[in-house]
Amino acid sequence: MEMQYLKIVAGRAVAPAGFDPGNIAHRKRLEYQRRILDLGLSPDILSDIVDEFYDRVRAHPILGAIFDQKIGPHWEHHLAKMKTFWISVALNAGTYSGKPVIAHKALQDVKPFHFGIWLGLFKQTVLDLTGSPEACDFLMKRAEKMANTFKKAMFGKTLPDPTNNAISSQEQEPPSC
Could you point out which of 36, 64, 91, 176 has its C-alpha 20 to 30 Å from the C-alpha of 136? Predict the structure, then answer.
């Protein structure tokens, strides 16, 4: 499998076309990709995580309606985009080019507490599919960063500190894996 900045041969990241061994950024990206693949987070596993996660989102009594209202009959397109996004985010593959903040700001029915639900579903999906707390921690750090970015753009605030007992349990982010 080869993408702009990612080439995998026999489960291992190898230098893609255009790789310059004298370029420190190229070397660091390749080292990073190897570490992430060693966690078990291959493009195939990331694709499976996206499929299972959105199956769970669609079945969720609160999130399902929100997503179905926005995505409607276009789930295949959305899943393909999310797979490209997560492969790019997790493996620094350079595969995604979109404007997710703008897309999320347009959502009218999303409330701040929905992010905690979303993160909880994502965390459980990653743990169920990988069985790896390390892989889960890695992906959750990225998911939490995204949730905070979206929440700040949409509502002007980030996720609350889970150690603050004064906030509702619905708004708390899930603990690390």
Answer: 64
Q: Are 64 and 57 in contact (CB under 8 A)?
A: yes
Instruction: Count Cβ neighbours within 10 Å for each residue of 50-73 and write b for 16 or more, e otherwise.
Output: bebbbebbeebeebeebbeebbee
Question: How many other C-beta atoms are found inside a 10 Å radius of the C-beta of residue 49?
Answer: 23
Domain count of the fold of the chain? 1
pTM, entire model: 0.84
Do 139 and 41 meet the contact criterion of CB atoms below 8 Å apart? yes
In angstroms, rounded to a whole number, what is the distance separating the alpha carbons of residues 56 and 30?
33
Using an 8 Å Cβ cutoff, are 52 and 125 in contact? yes
How does pLDDT run across 143-155, given as a tens digit for each residue? 999 999 999 988 8
- Residue 51 belongs to some domain of the structure: yes
CATH assignment at residue 70: 1.10.490.10
